[in-house]
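Open question from group meeting: does this chain pack into something compact, or does most of it stay loose? Before anyone orders reagents, we agreed to write out a predicted structure and look at it together. Recording both the input and the output here so the notebook holds the full record.
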Amino acid sequence: MMRIFVIALLALSIGVFGGCSQKKYFEPKDVRLQADFPHKLPAPIVHTSRVGALLKNYEVLDMSGNIDIELAKDQRFLGAEGGYYLVQNGCGALLLIDSATKTQSELAFSKCIVSATIAPHSSLQSDMLIALVGADNSVIVYDVGSKRERFSQKLANVIAINSLAAAPVFDKDTIIFPTLDGKIVMYDKASNALVRDILIQSDKFFNNIIYLVVKNDLIIAATSKRISTIVGNSKTFNYDGDFRDLLLHKDKIYVLSNDGKILELDHTLKLLREVKLEYARLHGIVVKDNALYTLESHKYLIEVNLENFLPVIYKVDLPSKKPIFYTDESLFYDRFYKRF
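Structure tokens returned:
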């Protein structure tokens, strides 16, 4: 299973960054503005996920834009919450690392993990739960206090996944899991059981949930082919396309499509506005000071003013075919980054 998982990630990486001779390229005319990526990381990025970027020197860049932990070879960073980092040794033991003291607690485990979330506001390990999604499409609730799985259930087999895999979300007494076969499933703590599943999309390949956000009574879940919103736990809206990434900002959903569009949708997935950049390959979304920023390959920085939804294009000088990572305020590319 780990071999399939690795092959899938390599295949996605080639598809995202490699390109092919038949592709046409974004070629804007008369671009005179230049944008710099003036800051440097201590080492280039070699791997990214939704929750962090691994640098070549084994340091981890987290979602806050901080570098505060260094991994050993074959360890993987799964996330951070409440003063703890979650790391996995290959496909084995989980490690909880105190961000202040760097002391480690080892949790027995033996399954490859794609994404994970530590329950928010977990200051004491004795009360801590961790929600995990396995590479075999299993959903797991791990009780840190007892150092054992409280719940585990394997779902349908999958063949290949998108590396932008969403992480589980804790919502009151429920954990919402993004599965690798295009669903979200809801676990109820009181009954220790899955109580609901919602199919987002049923494609066979690269059909995992790439984005999952819960805000008040709104759930947003997406695969690379469909965005769904569930409002008030009852009304469902869908928007189909070919998507690279998306971001909820305030009450709007901003979407990057694989055909070079930047979309603005409302919570019912009504298309409000769009920018069309023919043949553009867009990566990363940062919304800051009423503007949206995204990179077109390694050649251009796109800025979209959210007042008039008009784009401004800047040339950038970056190496080709390198990983990208973004936080709320910064775009990171290879070892270079820009704050907004």
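Observations to bring back to the group:
Residues 1-20 have pLDDT under 50 and may be disordered.
The chain has one helix and 32 strands.
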